[in-house]
Amino acid sequence: MTSLLLLSLAGLIYLFTVTRVWQASRKLAVGMMLFMPTGLYVLARYWNDREIGVRVPLLAAFAMFGVSWVLLAPDLRRLEVYASEADAGAMSPAPKARVADAVDDRLRLSIALAKLPQRGGRVEIEPAKAAIEVPPHFRFVDRAGLLALYAEIGTELEPSSVGWLVHEDVDLGADDAWFVEIEWLGDGYVRENGFAARPSERMLAEAQSAIAQLSARQGEEAQGFSLVRYVEEPAFDVGRDSATWVEELAYAGDAEHRLDCYAAKLGRGGALLFSILEVGMRRQELCLRSVRLAAGRTHFDPGQTYADHSSLFDRKAKYDLAAVVSGAAALREL
User: Fold this and answer.
1) Distance between CA atoms of 39 and 330, rounded to whole angstroms?
2) Model confidence over 41-84: pLDDT tens digits?
3) How many CA atoms lie within 13 A of 285 on its CB side?
4) For residues 197 and 321, what is the distance between their CA atoms, to the nearest angstrom?
5) Are 150 and 135 in contact (CB under 8 A)?
6) Which of 5, 45, 164, 215 has its CA 20 to 30 A from that of 37?
7) Distances (CA, A) of 271 to 129, 243, 320
8) End-to-end CA gap in the chain
9) Cα–Cα distance between 127 and 186 in angstroms, integer?
């Protein structure tokens, strides 16, 4: 969206400059409209002409054209890929239509993202009987907003997802966009079971096994992936009833590894899971701090905390905290 705004503004400034040049030379003005590089000649010719005054607006227009081109380059490369795939399919009746569809999809996604309702302050997470104090510079997108977004792009939202935390500086339409997804695992009391004393090697092996099963279940439609290591080993904060960990993942056919960052906050009736997925290796600190901040700003209602658990009356989840961290708990739902 930023690139399109810059491109539009650059075009308006360029047209304004054409009107100024028209007063001095109609031929050059027409040339500027038909062949943009003519503007470079005009810039050199009238550089010191204060009456025409084209130096500043033309420099601004060319600068904005350059910046917008840089921002648009990733989208153009993707369109080239779509076009090449369309040309490669000899049975495809209309490759140009496929490229146009890709542009339309991108535009619809941008519009849907721009319409997402976002709010700050205290937000209730009703299914979990909890609330989050939205951190400064973040905004909360609730499940209703996400359902509208997912309906627009034709996919289904996970039943466990209750919202996103989005930083105000993040463009959700960008390739490197990130956000904190919040999920409610409301299957009952999740036992800690001496989690802090579990050997890290055992935790890693269990997680690698679970991720391998998940990758295999996704089949050929998804890109295979594997857990390389824990960049931040799973740690449990007894005082806050929360665990944090960061995984380094390798994807088939991709030399660049990525990070998944998690925090889990335990309550009486389940666990809230905070995650940022598939971010670059250089964003480790940002990734970990964000999920930890989200968990730290979330509190269960009175009577619903982890310490309020009743072994006699409360339902227990069929998995423990180690299964949440390893991903074995998620496999149960597939």
Assistant:
1) 59
2) 767 766 676 666 767 776 777 777 676 666 555 555 554 544 44
3) 1
4) 12
5) no
6) 5
7) 11, 10, 10
8) 37
9) 8
pTM of the model: 0.68
- Which helix (H) or strand (E) element contains residue 228? strand 225-237
324: closest CA among 215, 222, 186, 228? 186
pLDDT (tens digit per residue) in 116-139:
888 999 999 999 999 999 999 999
Residue 20's nearest CA partner among 67, 68, 63, 61 is 61
Only one residue has tokens 């390389």, namely 228
- Rounded (10°) angle between helices 143-153 and 95-114: 170
Yes or no: say if 272 and 182 are a contact pair by the CB < 8 Å rule.
Answer: yes
| Whole-angstrom distance, CA of residue 318 vs CA of residue 298 | 24
- The answer to whether the beta carbons of residues 186 and 300 sit under 8 Å apart is no
Give the sheet arrangement for strand 271-280, strand by strand: 138-142, 161-167, 180-185, 271-280, 254-266, 242-251, 225-237
What phi and psi, each to the nearest 5 degrees, are found at residue 83? -65, -40
